[in-house]
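Hi W., the uridine-5'-diphosphate complex you wanted:
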Amino acid sequence: MKKIVTIIGARPQFIKAAAVSRELKKHLALNEIIIHTGQHFDDNMSEIFFREMEIPKPAYNLNINGLSHGAMTGQMLEGIEKILLEEKPDWVMVYGDTNSTLAGALAASKLHIKVAHVEAGLRSFNYKMPEEINRILTDRMSTILFVPTDTAIKNLEAEGFKNYPTQIVKNGDVMQDAALYYAKTSEQQSKIISYLNLKKFVLATLHREENTNDINVLQRLINALNKINAEIPVVVPLHPRTKKILAQHNLQAEFKITDPVGYFDMIELLKHCSLVMTDSGGLQKEAFFFQKHCITLREQTEWVELVEKGFALVAGSDELKIQNAFEYFRNKKSDFNINLYGNGKASAVIVETLLTA
Ligand code: UDP
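Structure:
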């Protein structure tokens, strides 16, 4: 039996790991042990996903949060190393681009434990983003890189990965696996559309540091959302970080703000909305999965194929660009029936690869 230690800590990682864990459970030859670093810890940022998505209970919870990047990553590194020395797994599996991803990959590679990185090879080429540093370093330390797109392969080749012994496997996107699976039951599980009495609305989220750290940038984004809200109601399940900063600076949001919602509610919001506006990596793709256009509230995106195929527009925090993108998508019809992300088989490819690796 192969032992796999999965390291997760932030909301998007719970969603990705849910899809892969479900697939791992089908194979007696693979034993998964989950470490939760504690990076996200509120009920609505963490627990709810374990409950709703039936993610196995973590064997370890390091409860590390609310620290600077360095302190958080350092404490995680120490905590994860201790567990890996005890558990002696065959593989460590990490997801995406958070501090938990970097700490997990670094702890494992120093102990000569093989690292599988899911959602590898993505680049924004913005080296000020903490996520960009985390993903570049994690890719370099990994044994297998599970990449979602051809662009990711090209990014790795440009960085010289052809010269490294790293195995690159294009498996698609595990978030699509999750979206397809949970969309089957979300309507029975979620009451959010009737609870918020929603008809036609725009779904938006905002939480990336590049948008929340600079108050002028955040003010522009709030202005843009306020303007769109005057035409179509905007609904924002708000990340705790953004909520705190809005209150600190007394920024006035005229749109509907809710607490962060669970995954079933999110799927129902995605199914029923007219348009998505977001700086979230995951939500840009989920908009596509549910056949919605997306205005990307960042200066760059890793999901370039969405822009190339006309499903998304990158508008940054420029009020005029955002308004123009809104007008552009208002009556636009697109054919979303194109396979960009693997059509729900991405987790199966990961498990098949690990069974023989
Ligand atoms: N999400 C959610 N509830 C919310 C906001 C987001 O379930 O209130 C989900 C969303 O559908 C996506 C994931 O969280 O699957 C994205 O996480 P986030 O935006 O925090 O991180 P990023 O994708 O930018 O790394």
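The longest helix spans residues 69-87.

W.
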